[in-house]
Specification:
The complex is a heterodimer. Chain A is of the alpha+beta class. Chain A has seven helices and five strands; from the N terminus they run αβαααββαααββ. Chain A has one domain: 2-Layer Sandwich (Heat Shock Protein 90). Chain A has a five-stranded antiparallel sheet with strand order 1-2-3-5-4. In chain A, α2 runs antiparallel to α3 and α3 runs antiparallel to α7. In chain B, strands 1-2-3-4-5-6 form a six-stranded mixed sheet, with helices on one face. Helix content of chain B is about 40%, strand content about 30%. By secondary structure, chain B is of the alpha/beta class. The radius of gyration of chain B is 14 Å and the shape is globular. The chains are: A alpha+beta, B alpha/beta. The interface between A and B is medium-sized, with 28 and 24 residues.
Chain lengths: ~190, ~130
Amino acid sequence: MDYLRSYKNIYDQNIILLYKGELTFDLVTSMISTLEERLEELEENRRVKKKFYNVATECIQNLYYHLDEVNAEGTPISSYDSKSALVLIAARKRFYSLQTGNYVPSNKTKEIQKRLDDINSVDSDGLRAMYKEALNLQEFSDKGTGGLGFIDIARKTGGQKLRYKFQPVNENVTYFTLQVRLPRDLN
Amino acid sequence: MEKIFIEPTKVTPLVNFDPNEGLLELKGRSSPENSIQFYAKIIEGLEEFINQGGDEFIANFAFEYFNTSSSKCLFDVFKRLSKIDASGKDLTINWYYEEDDDDMMEAGEDYSDLLGLDFNFMEIEED
């Protein structure tokens, strides 16, 4: 087995963080601190650094709050994997790419997709209005999340569309991948 | 009325709440695991101030970052400030944000607009 080759695949793509596994809140906090230190070296633009911190925190915390929703019984996925997250953050030339992956209950995909499509269909003024409306109307979920996460991410990345994919595993479980792009050329 | 002082951490802001002086200060970053729990005491204290506090209240916000769950809690804080305002007390809200941080400035504008509160927007210069 050519270990060097598999490592090179990772190095060559400018990956600054790659993680697969369960998440605890402390781990999330450490990951964000590590990312912040890396950005100190990689990024000169202070505004981009700050936006990156915002968006990375929201993405990874969001993931953390939603990992326990899947019941993988009767699927080929182990119970550990079903509650695992995948986080892949890379520094490209023109943008930072923040990708997350996790299993979600299939009966939730329509709702998530609708939310993402709604967000992707409006411009920055529309996003701001949507955020304010959600702030004003929506109640907290039992986890303390307020349904604002995706809107906030879209706002802070300056109208970049949220890229996503749903891949069904079976009728109960679907794999959800989200890619967020933060442009590096802010003035 | 009880004072609250909390040192800042990586995920929680500095809190300096002195209801007897009519002062609330929040500064730093806010992305705790449980925002509702973190902000509950402040909100309780503000409720108490509405009924028993003095005639003046100053609230200073100097956030570097807050997550969306904290954002909802802050909205609840502002709702209480709005009650203080409506009760005829003299309310001052100062919203500090770092130079060029349009996102933080807009966040302040959003609260101000949603609740019809006057904010003093103060840009902090970077060294």
